[in-house]
Amino acid sequence: MCRFVIRVLLFSFVVAQNAVTVFGFQNVPLDGTRTVNDKPKTPSQLPIDNPFAAPSQLALRAPAFDAIRVEHFLPAFMAGIDEQIEEMKTIAGQSDAPTFENTIVAYEKSGALLTRVEQVFSNLTSANTNKHLQSIQQELAPLLAAHSDNIQLNRQLFERFEILYESRESLKLTGEQQEVLRRHYEDFVRAGAKLPKAQQDRIRSLNEQLSKLQTEFRNNLLEATKERSVIVDDVAELDGLSDAQIAAAAEKAKERGNDGKYVLEITNTTRVPILTSLNNRVLRQRVWEASANRALGQNGGIDNRGLVLEIAQLRAERAKLLGFKNHAAYKLQNQMAKTPEAARKMLTDLVPGVVARVNQEADDLRAIMKQLGAGHELAPWDWEYYSEKVRKARFDVDEAEVKPYFEVNNVLEQGVFFTMKKLFGIEFRERNDLPVYHRDVKVFDVMDADGSQIGLFYIDFFSRDSKRGGAWMSAYVGQSSLLNQKPVIVNVLNNPRPAEGEPALISFDNATTMFHEMGHAVHGLFSNVTYPSVAGTATPRDFVEFPSTFEEDWAIQPDILRNYARHHKTGEPIPAELLTKVIQASKFNQGFDTLEYLSAAILDLEWHTLSADEIPDDIQAFEAATLKKYGIDIPAVPPRYRTAYFAHIWGGGYSAAYYAYIWSEVLAADAFAHMQSTGGATRENGNRFRKEVLSRGSSRDPMDSYKTWRGNAPTIEALLIRRGLK
Q: SS3 for 409?
């Protein structure tokens, strides 16, 4: 349970973004609720009718969304904080000498109430938030930061961990127990437990300020993304979009009070998928600029620039206090990369080959532009448009021809679930008796090959104004044999919502994302550890994306693709010729895809290797200088995220760690190549991968888990092949 405390410290309460409402339950105003300054209720005072007062009585402790109301959250958080503080006092103040049982196990069991409410609140505020929940976020951020500090800067408590750590060789601990002890001890040290009081006081202040600023950034970004939506008056401007896309744009305009018009939403990334289809170049430029220039304060709009500079400044100061050269050095110390230099080298080693590929791709685009009589230079709002034309010409693949074979429910059931059964023997059985937070959500029992239940799986399919961008996995209940808990996991997606009555047809990229998120899901579902702090996805950032990226590659395997790529009307499988084209086209435009990612990852490291006195005044100038410095300043290929809307690093847990995606991809590519060489999607292969990697969490060093399964460390060769760069 104590995972929550650590999570608050490291990730500054990464709970959400978005606005507007549509709970699956009543939306209650906050009038009359207590504030952070009010005296917290003790657990015994938390009303029994508060759904968080006791573990849920639903299957596997699933959240009682039909009973949860907005006004339940703040009292539950405050009572949970109070409860855990009392538990910490008991652990720290006992007269018995520290043992693994009376200190570490007691610590692992602490914070049950706080964990229950946080696990619901954090996903809800990302997936289906509103103004009331955002208000609670703002109140909670500094309170939770202070709570984490109150625990990890408690000298008396730390001394018990230190005694155990220094005598660890004589304690006869299991491998998992050794890892749990090591992680807790190091977390205390990294939090500042060894610092003098004056420095600890400054750390507390910095953590409080950062928690507020990061929450503000996230909430600003949600509003900015909505603010920058493009309104179109004339349907003729939408030439190139499908009838379904136009209908969805009209429906979105109506929702926002713009009847008779059309709303084109921007996405969380710089690129916007509809740019592949829009024939109107002026509109393409409007859409791209709306995306790329968000949160810069244009026309009096949302401005994140000051927040970014302040966050960077405070992070650098905190790192120095904790004995690190910069924030990146602090963050990477306990990751697989260990140092920012190692992470940067991995990224920059890829740059020459990727830039060469981008230049080739740009030449291909200019050639087709010339062929079509385009009298303009290649601009960023042109890249995806002409790439799609090259893709069609080279592979004869038209997205409009492909989409009818990718209906979202069929992709899930006959693609993702089918693959999980082939690999692991598990089955997903839908159930309709458990409450959900939104009508888009489905729930499944996850059953093992022997008929026993592994856990519960929720999936939330479609984008909406109350949901932040991207896709993610969260746990409502984490696995732990110590706590007798089975996992309850949710995948949240942002597939485009179809117009009412239309089928939910998605792109092949979105289908691949569903496989990716299921990789995270099974990492949580297959967890088989004792202690909650090392369960499931509680691994280093540059390892956690490995199982998810690994699952992506199954989406394109011919036998799997044939099973789920079926026409939504006829049920006919995708024609063999079209199937081959889809597979071939999947490696297309990899120079662009890789460079936009590398640019963002390098930008992240560059920001977070600055010292406190090196923080610039102008984020746009710094961004331009960074791209030029590393030879990646190609105007037509901007970073996947620019600084002002880079939620991963300013509002999430990936500061100085965005490199982790490609670091993990090295593992994933190597792993997939190995599995293909040993028979592919067989139960034997899947079960061994489950046993040695997916079930282990951080109960042992992740690289040890990889080597135990693979037989050796990964190389970069498979990655280059996977990305079509070799």
A: helix
Give how many domains the chain has, as a whole number: 2
Task: List CB contacts of 596: < 8 A, sequence separation 6 or more.
Answer: 270, 271, 637, 638, 639, 640
Tell which of 259, 292, 325 closes a domain.
292
pTM for this model (two decimals): 0.88
* Same domain for 252 and 127: no
Cα gap 74→71, rounded to integer Å: 7
Distance CA 217, CA 221 (A): 6
Please check whether residue 539 lies inside any domain of the structure.
no
> Nearest 5°: CA angle at 609, between 138 and 330?
65
Q: Residue 306, exposed/middle/buried by CB under 10 A (0-12, 13-18, 19+)?
A: exposed
What is the pLDDT averaged over residues 534-541?
96
Expressed as residue numbers, the domain containing 124 is: 3-152+154-191
Exposure letters 502-532 (e unless 16+ CB within 10 A, then b): eebbbbbebbbbbbbbbbbbbbbbbbbbbbb
Q: Is the model's pLDDT at 163 over the cut of 60?
A: yes
Mean pLDDT of 223-244: 94
Within this chain, do residues 187 and 234 fall inside the same structural domain, yes or no? no
Is residue 265 included in any domain, yes or no?
Answer: yes
C-beta atoms surrounding 368 within 10 Å = 16
Pairing between strand 488-495 and 453-462? parallel
**What is the b/e burial string over 330-354, where b = at least 16 CB atoms within 10 angstroms of the residue's CB?**
bbbeebbbeebeebbebbeebbeeb
Q: Quick one: what percent of the chain has pLDDT higher than 70? A: 94
Q: Which two tokens stand for residue 584?
A: 């071939």
The last residue of one of the domains, among 140, 162, 191, is 191
* 108 carries an active-site annotation: no
Q: Is residue 247 part of a domain?
A: yes
Q: Cα 484 to chain center, whole Å? A: 27
Domain identity same for 182 and 239? no
For residue 2, is pLDDT > 70? no
Spot the catalytic one: 265, 407, 517, 545: 517
Q: Is the same domain home to 182 and 276?
A: no
Q: Supply 316's token pair.
A: 């650098």
Evaluate whether residue 687 is within a structural domain: no
Chain length of the chain: 726
Residue with tokens 């990612």: 597
CATH of residue 125: 1.10.1370.40
How large a percentage of the chain has pLDDT more than 90? Answer: 84
Q: Are residues 68 and 160 in the same domain?
A: yes
Q: What is the mean pLDDT of the chain?
A: 91
pLDDT on residue 17:
26
